[in-house]
Amino acid sequence: MRYIELGRSGLRVSKIGLGTWQIGSSEWGWNRGYSIDEVIKAIVRSHELGVNFIDTAEIYGGGVSEEVVGRAVREFRDEVVIATKVWPTHATYDGVLKACERSLRRLGVDVIDLYQVHWPNPLIPLSSTMRAMERLVEQGKVRTIGVSNFSAGMLRRAQECLKKEEIVSDQVKYNLVERGVERELLPYCEREGVALIAYSPLAQGFLTARYNVSNRPRDFVRRLNPLFDPSVMRRAGPLMELLREVASRHGAEPGQIALAWLIKRERVVAIPGAKRAEQVESNAGAAELELSEEEWAALSEAASRIDVGLWPLLKTPLRLLGI
Ligand SMILES: NC(=O)c1ccc[n+]([C@@H]2O[C@H](COP(=O)([O-])OP(=O)(O)OC[C@H]3O[C@@H](n4cnc5c(N)ncnc54)[C@H](OP(=O)(O)O)[C@@H]3O)[C@@H](O)[C@H]2O)c1
Question: pTM score, two decimals?
Fold first, then answer.
């Protein structure tokens, strides 16, 4: 496993972490095909493999994710960096303080290593939210502060609201086919020493090359995701072929290549979600792969040709109906 410092926090995190939105979430098919035993085994296995960074949120599974993560890491709590998030409806000063208490209780820990503002809330002054985050650090309930789904401009503004603390990370959607953050946010993070935590690093399974037009995932999350529209899946054929080809050269899986592509960037940490131990094993293995510059460039080029376009987005209601 490879590790980096999370921003300038002094916290050392693995380049491949573990995302846990899947835990307790019916929208991902919780208790239909995977359940608590599998995800606990996955968390324990990730620890054995050197994955020390676990991401959860108060919203995941209505708190089930935090409870299960807390339970699974009890024996090795001091060896992992636990990140959780406050939901935007709790972003008032008092709301943040109370949400943090609930998260601490569900996780069964004394301190949250990284506490993140899950999404900006335009209805609540950012300064109130950030003051509460700083108060939590003063109280020793939170070690470091992060944000999520913040643009470069918002990240700068959030930092200006803090008196003493630094924002150590921004958690955003980033993968081979969804690269909007490369325009402004990633250069900003690289310049300012902020970690970019890449969520949906496998594009929700799209980049594992396991799915195709006649075998699409049926859960709610991926019916919403326009990448799984048949028209996009058809256009992705050449990219999937290239992922398979590079993978076979490295004795790896296509999804591992997609993760290796992402974490080649120094400031980027990926947090793939996993439902079972085999997935964690494969994802952790991506940290051992080193893509050549040519492979990296060829993948970037092939992926940039996949433009989702407007139609798959407009068709979302039809996909939700299973059409
Ligand atoms: N801050 C935010 O707003 C935000 C938003 C989204 C996610 N997140 C965080 O980021 C994490 C990851 O994002 P994500 O869950 O959206 O997408 P992801 O990590 O790109 O995809 C996860 C899915 O890919 C499949 N998968 C994972 N590893 C695999 C492997 N080795 N081989 C084959 N398939 C594999 C699994 O689904 P199947 O097996 O069913 O195909 C899994 O549920 C989340 O768990 C959450 O912690 C944060």
Answer: 0.96
